[in-house]
């Protein structure tokens, strides 16, 4: 192993901090959790924390980027596993529905964070918008491949269905919310892609 390998591989302490923060931020909120709580549960010192994350905001950004990558990996797998764009859109919806039905589901990490960081010029808010823009562009591109109709309105509709399901999934019966969401997406995809979804 070279020095370069050591330099590029995340340290165990950094991974522990990020894993701990991801769990607590998602379950309890970001502002409610302080650095002392995170370092205590991750079993690292404050000095170690600040060596990896110069501020709590840096940790929050790393948390959102980690969640983004998890979602991106799930959606990429759904696209790769389905030959047609219509089926890929349904596959992404299945992945979203599965997350809603997961024990401990607390809604969308990005919508939750947006409620805590409403200022449009804040770095955390900008990170949230970057994620949402990626999701909208992903759905728009799939719809554009599936139909000759303009894809933007249907893509926005898909995103709104997803947002509503993510909000409702932690307030009502997750199974029912997931079923309702999937039914809505299936109708949307059928209308906008016709027989090309099969």
From TrEMBL:
<keyword id="KW-0238">DNA-binding</keyword>
<feature type="DNA-binding region" description="H-T-H motif">
    <location>
        <begin position="34"/>
        <end position="53"/>
    </location>
</feature>
<dbReference type="GO" id="GO:0000976">
    <property type="term" value="F:transcription cis-regulatory region binding"/>
</dbReference>
<dbReference type="GO" id="GO:0003700">
    <property type="term" value="F:DNA-binding transcription factor activity"/>
</dbReference>
<dbReference type="InterPro" id="IPR001647">
    <property type="entry name" value="HTH_TetR"/>
</dbReference>
<dbReference type="InterPro" id="IPR036271">
    <property type="entry name" value="Tet_transcr_reg_TetR-rel_C_sf"/>
</dbReference>
<dbReference type="InterPro" id="IPR050109">
    <property type="entry name" value="HTH-type_TetR-like_transc_reg"/>
</dbReference>
<protein>
    <submittedName>
        <fullName>AcrR family transcriptional regulator</fullName>
    </submittedName>
</protein>
<feature type="domain" description="HTH tetR-type">
    <location>
        <begin position="11"/>
        <end position="71"/>
    </location>
</feature>
<dbReference type="Pfam" id="PF00440">
    <property type="entry name" value="TetR_N"/>
</dbReference>
<dbReference type="InterPro" id="IPR009057">
    <property type="entry name" value="Homeodomain-like_sf"/>
</dbReference>
